[in-house]
Amino acid sequence: MNVVIAFVTGLTTGGLSCLAVQGGLLASSLAAQLEQDVQQQRQPRTRRAAAAGASKPGMAAPILLFLAAKLAAYTLLGFLLGLAGSVVQLDSTGRAVLQFAIGIFMIGNALRMLNVHPVFRYFAFEPPKMLTRYLRRKAKRDTGWMTPLVLGALTVLIPCGVTQSMMALAVATGDPFSGAAVLFAFTLGASPVFFAVAYFATRLGSRLERSFNRLVAVTVLVLGFVAIETGLNLMGSPYSISALTRSLTSAPAVTAEAAPDGVQVLSIDVKNYGYMPEVLVAAAGSPVRLELNTWNTRSCSRAFTIPALKVEKLLPATGTVVIEIPPQPAGSVLQFSCSMGMYGGVIRFN
């Protein structure tokens, strides 16, 4: 399911976000072809029309080479991150801190793109300037395949905010091949949008290009706040948007049932789209037996966490897992969520 999530993320938001951050490297790889196009525009109209058909495939080829190198580089990166995750496993607090860092970077990067203040220029990853200057000089002379491949591979040095979220997911898999699959799926999903926008952006006027950059900046800004929201959920904070929404709305609450042994029983159905019910109520001062039921569940909801109790359970695709919750004082609230902070709920003790 992580691979599916990564692919859909790349297909929907990854292409635009990556292009906003990595567009400079792509422009360098297209420098020779763009110069050739400019020269054709200066030719007489008849010769320009005859050459127009040939120029488009020439523009597509370096973009495809750039994306192919990027795909290979990120797959290798995912392998290494998964390998690192197999050695060092992050708990929910560690993942929350990582999400906060990602969210802050994405917000700062978006504000940099919107030219809000010069201080936000620091929210950008760039390869060494000596290397980029050398490659750009070489790109102007080289019309072959080497420059797009090298620059495409260099994109691992300047990952966008969405890519960093996928990198965190690759680490969380704790397996090198799973980590490689996550970043391969994400980069593959981002490639069609990246290609289409890059190809047609080379033929847009400056006004349309500025409008496009603003649109991407707003998208990255929203995703930054989503990352921070995810971090709050992973910490079990009552101040996340989803937690505040549950506290303010009249969501139906399920009350615990008493078992013969005197233990309270709560049951949650773990579905692909979240937890049902989301709000549960138990009596304070008595232990609770929490039953988690899955039926062919494949999403990240299987990775169940209760941050306040340091509970982290990977549920089977189908089955029932029981978690024993010790007695809680009156007024206590236990937030629970999936390991990615996407789905969650709350247990209240009265």
Provide a concise account of the structure shown:
With 350 residues, the chain is α/β, with parallel strands linked by helices. The chain is 57% helix and 15% strand.
Key descriptive features of the protein:
single chain; 350 residues; alpha/beta; 15% strand
Description:
With 350 residues, the chain is α/β, with parallel strands linked by helices. It has two domains: 2-234, no CATH class; 241-349, Immunoglobulin-like (Sandwich). It has ten helices and eleven strands. The strands form two sheets. The protein has a six-stranded mixed beta sheet with strand order 1-5-11-10-7-8, with helices on one face. Strands 2, 3, 4, 6 and 9 form a five-stranded mixed beta sheet that branches. A hairpin with a 5-residue loop joins strand 10 and strand 11.
Strand and helix layout:
Elements: H1 2-29, H2 31-41, H3 45-87, H4 92-113, H5 129-141, H6 146-153, H7 161-173, H8 176-201, H9 206-234, H10 241-248, E1 254-255, E2 257-258, E3 264-271, E4 274-276, E5 279-282, E6 288-294, E7 303-306, E8 311-314, E9 319-325, E10 333-338, E11 344-349
Parallel strand pairs: 1-5, 3-6, 5-11
Antiparallel strand pairs: 2-3, 3-4, 6-9, 7-8, 7-10, 10-11
Spatial strand order of the main sheet: 1-5-11-10-7-8
Shape: elongated
Describe the sheet with the most strands.
6 strands, mixed
Straight-line distance between termini: 37 Å
Mean pLDDT: 77
Work out the oligomeric state of the chains in this entry: single chain
Give the count of helical stretches: 10
Q: Could you estimate the helical fraction of the residues in percent?
A: 55-70%
**Poorly predicted residue ranges:** 33-42, 46-57
Secondary-structure element series: HHHHHHHHHHEEEEEEEEEEE
SS content category: alpha/beta
How many whole angstroms does the radius of gyration measure? Answer: 25 Å
Q: Got a strand count?
A: 11
Task: Provide the domain count.
Answer: 2
Strand content: 15-25%
